């Protein structure tokens, strides 16, 4: 009877753990989907309102530091948790904040340089890098299935969004835009060919250079986010709170925004007008960025799997 009771207790605890695990997976998936929706929508808001990375980053940094510093202090005042972490853990926290902040700032800086579709596709290659960093930092198994699933996510993403750097842009749209700003006759094939050559020559200028800079920034975002989320999982297992992670990322983000003001002008610091649209969209964009961060952090806490 004792052995039967032990078996029943064991099966009951396994059932509870299984339910808890399933619940965490569902909540984690919901959080990451919300984070991605906020992230994508925010890109369109920033591009439409012509805000700079310095402007959004500064407001978002101030909001995030104030909110989550308060939550961090409240959390540790009530729980009386020991904050004496090992030096290794403190270094990881600083690395997390640095890479999360620089990755987000790089993405914000790339928004005016390229189409949003292309930006999203490149940034969403992050799972492929997360598999590698998880294997390195978290000692997870690097299986063929994980590699194939990561490739499948990227390929599916590419075919859905169809970025212009792979599929090319609609030449009819290009010709329509070109004809509105020129007097070239497009009525015959010879002039059509000449017009396409002119368009190609124009693309080799500043816009093309900015585009490739934007692509480089997006790839850095994908790699940096993958590394930061792997660090986040390791820090959570060491007892580091989500609020501490949010404060670290926000502090580095605020420093970056101020440091890059000479390169990416911050009209708020120089008393210049953002326009009626800019003043409305700036707090919305900053708050969306904070929320996207928060839901991403929550999803990692639930899933404990940066690849997901």
Largest sheet: none
The helix tally amounts to 12
Gyration radius, in Å: 24 Å
How far apart are the termini? 43 Å
**β content, as a range?**
under 5%
Mean pLDDT: 80
Q: Element order, helices and strands?
A: HHHHHHHHHHHH
Report what the structure shows.
The protein is mainly alpha-helical and 308 residues long. It has helices spanning 2-49, 53-79, 87-110, 116-123, 126-138, 144-161, 164-167, 171-180, 189-203, 206-237, 242-259, 275-303.
SSE inventory with pairings:
Blueprint: H1 2-49, H2 53-79, H3 87-110, H4 116-123, H5 126-138, H6 144-161, H7 164-167, H8 171-180, H9 189-203, H10 206-237, H11 242-259, H12 275-303
Helix pairs in contact: 1-12, 2-3, 2-11, 2-12, 3-10, 3-11, 4-6, 4-10, 5-10
Summarize the structure.
The chain is mostly helical. It is built from twelve helices and no strands.
Primary descriptors:
single chain, 308 residues, mainly alpha, 12 helices, 80% helix, globular
């Amino acid at each position: 009877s004792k052995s039967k009771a032990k078996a029943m207790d064991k099966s009951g605890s396994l059932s509870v753990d299984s339910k808890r695990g399933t619940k965490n997976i569902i909540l984690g998936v919901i959080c990451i989907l919300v984070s991605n929706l906020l992230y994508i929508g925010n890109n369109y808001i920033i591009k439409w309102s012509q805000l700079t990375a310095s402007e959004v980053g500064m407001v978002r940094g101030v909001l995030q530091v104030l909110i989550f510093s308060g939550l961090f202090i409240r959390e540790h005042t009530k729980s009386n948790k020991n904050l004496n972490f090992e030096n290794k853990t403190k270094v990881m926290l600083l690395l997390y904040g640095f890479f999360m902040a620089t990755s987000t700032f790089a993405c914000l800086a790339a928004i005016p340089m390229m189409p949003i579709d292309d930006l999203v596709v490149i940034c969403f290659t992050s799972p492929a890098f997360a598999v590698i960093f998880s294997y390195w930092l978290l000692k997870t198994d690097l299986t063929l299935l994980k590699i194939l699933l990561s490739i499948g996510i990227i390929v599916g993403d590419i075919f859905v969004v169809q970025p212009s750097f792979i599929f090319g842009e609609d030449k009819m749209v290009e010709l329509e835009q070109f004809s509105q700003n020129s007097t070239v006759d497009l009525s015959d094939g010879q002039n059509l060919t000449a017009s396409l050559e002119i368009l190609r020559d124009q693309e080799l200028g500043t816009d093309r250079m900015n585009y490739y800079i934007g692509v480089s920034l997006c790839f850095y975002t994908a790699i940096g986010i993958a590394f930061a989320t792997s660090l986040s999982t390791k820090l959570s297992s060491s007892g580091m709170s989500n609020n501490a992670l949010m404060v670290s990322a926000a502090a580095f983000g605020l420093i970056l925004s101020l440091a890059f003001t000479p390169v990416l002008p911050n009209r708020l610091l120089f008393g210049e007008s953002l326009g009626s649209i800019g003043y409305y969209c700036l707090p919305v964009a900053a708050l969306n960025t904070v929320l996207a961060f928060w839901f991403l952090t929550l999803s990692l806490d639930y899933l404990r799997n940066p690849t997901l």
